[in-house]
Every structure is written in C-alpha cells, then in structure tokens.
Amino acid sequence: MRLVEVTDANRDAVIAVRVHPAQERFVASVEKSFQHAEESPDANPWFRAVYDGDGPVGFVMLSWNVTPQPDIRGPYFLWRLLVDAKLQGRGYGSAILNEVVALLRAEGATELLTSYVPGEGSPEPFYRGYGFLPTGEVDEDGEIILKLDLSARP
To answer: N-acetyltransferase domain spans which residues (predicted)?
Structure first.
C-alpha cells in the first residue's frame, strides 16, 4: 500500500472510490473533498490517493501544519479518510493511518486531530480502536473532536 499524489491522470479513478452507501452521511465523497480543499486554502489541504497495486483503494486528506483558527483545527487534522466499500474490513484504514502517522512524526508532529458525526454506523469505533480519544470538544457542525497522541502509539 502506498500514498500517491492525485494528478490529472488518476483523478477520475480516485473520484470513483466510494464508501458504502450507509456511510455516506458520515464521510464526504472524494469529489466533495476536492471541493472542500479548493474552498479552504487556509486549511493547507494535503491529500493523497491510497493505492494497493495499480489502482486506488482509498483516499486521505489532512490539514497539514496549519496555525489553528476558529474554523480550522490543527496543526494536523485528519479531514477525510475513505476506503472503497468493496475493500473495507481488510485493514486498509489502519494501514493508511499508520502511513500518515509515520509522515507526521517525521514532521515533528505530536498529535493528530479528527472528528466524526455521531450516530449508528459512525467511524467512532474505528478511530477509538486505533487510539484516538475524545477531547471533550464538539465543532460548530456537531462533530465530536478526537485526538491521537503520536508519542503514545508505537
């Protein structure tokens, strides 16, 4: 598995990555992620396609090394994590986070924030199982903020 820059050559294949329909209310699409990135340059969006072999199996997007602001969490915020519906349950989500954590540690980051929409079928169990813990904060959209202590995870 590897993180690959999104280019004109692979953009359509990356956009075709879709979560299970029941997860769509919790995770925005890749296409919507690109729109959010374009609309929020101050969040310093960093995104990559996730490849296993010749094709994309997922997508990840972070706010990368930003100064926190009222509407931008940081310095590192996991904005989006998707694994294609056909490939979920095979360890890709954790493998993607392992890659991201390694990159963040190389940058000197000490924590990674993320959020989730509460409800039946949310990604909360996945994030909590990986080691993210609630900060006690809720954002303006009602999403629960979680933090991963990068010094505590092997």
So the answer is: 1-151
